């Protein structure tokens, strides 16, 4: 199992959000999580990625308990082994699109050839080369989302967490991104957990048994 989550509980201001979620994810799986707005999808994804702390429960990534890892090990895992695309993209405002994309490589001392690689991902993701020199605030929402995807895909993480990765994209870009995700899942064996509101997007990339629904703080399968 690449992810083993047990008994995940999270309350906000005394209100339960997640009520004891158990989830095991096999390596190479492509899972989609669906559910109404406010049902706890982002909370769950960020807990699974080791970014948000649950009130109770544990998460193991590749057999290691993420909430007891030393900070340095967590930081290393985040720019080498796992990749995440946040719902609000979380691009760094003071870096150009190009510098955002190559950031994970720069952080792991792999800057050589990084810009060329970034350009090839930009091309695949339909990001105009002219956009690469711009700051995120000068890009459209859809371009920012594709920059966030390029930043997560560039170092070929083994485990990808994607929070509504096509939420700001038009139909053509949505299917282009879904084709890329299918390709990295099938050919590179990348494990992917995505959140989407789109049944069409979920069914395009996942078998029905890999589409999970979250409601009232639990996963209905
Ligand atoms: N940091 C926080 N502090 C307080 N409450 C929060 C916090 N984050 C989320 N919540 C609450 O927890 C619930 C679940 O939020 P979450 O963002 O996980 O939902 P979601 O399923 O991702 O929704 P959406 O589809 O709108 O993105 C919501 O009621 C939200 O108000
Ligand atoms: Mg959300």
Gap from first CA to last CA: 18 Å
Portion of residues in beta strands equals 25-35%
* Main beta sheet: 6 strands, mixed
Structural class: alpha/beta
The coarse silhouette is: globular
- Report the CATH architecture: 3-Layer(aba) Sandwich
Question: What's the helical proportion of residues?
Answer: 25-40%
**CATH fold topology:** Rossmann fold
Low-confidence stretches: none
State the total count of DSSP E strands: 10
CATH class: Alpha Beta
Could you explain how this protein is built, in words?
There is one protein chain. Helices cover 35% and strands 25% of the residues. The chain has one domain (3-220): Rossmann fold. The chain is of the alpha/beta class and 221 residues long. The model has no long low-confidence stretch (mean pLDDT 97). It has seven helices and ten strands. A six-stranded mixed sheet has the order 6-7-8-3-9-10, with helices on both faces. Strands 2-1-4-5 form a four-stranded antiparallel sheet, with helices on one face. Bound molecules: adenosine-5'-triphosphate and magnesium ion. Adenosine-5'-triphosphate (ATP) binds at residues 12, 17, 35, 37-43, 87.
SSE blueprint:
Elements: E1 3-12, E2 15-25, E3 30-34, H1 41-48, E4 56-61, E5 64-65, H2 71-80, E6 82-85, H3 97-107, H4 114-124, H5 141-153, E7 159-163, H6 171-188, E8 191-195, H7 199-205, E9 211-215, E10 218-220
Bound molecules: adenosine-5'-triphosphate (ATP) and magnesium ion.
Label this structure with key terms.
binds adenosine-5'-triphosphate; globular; 6-stranded mixed beta sheet; 7 helices; Rossmann fold; 221 residues; binds magnesium ion
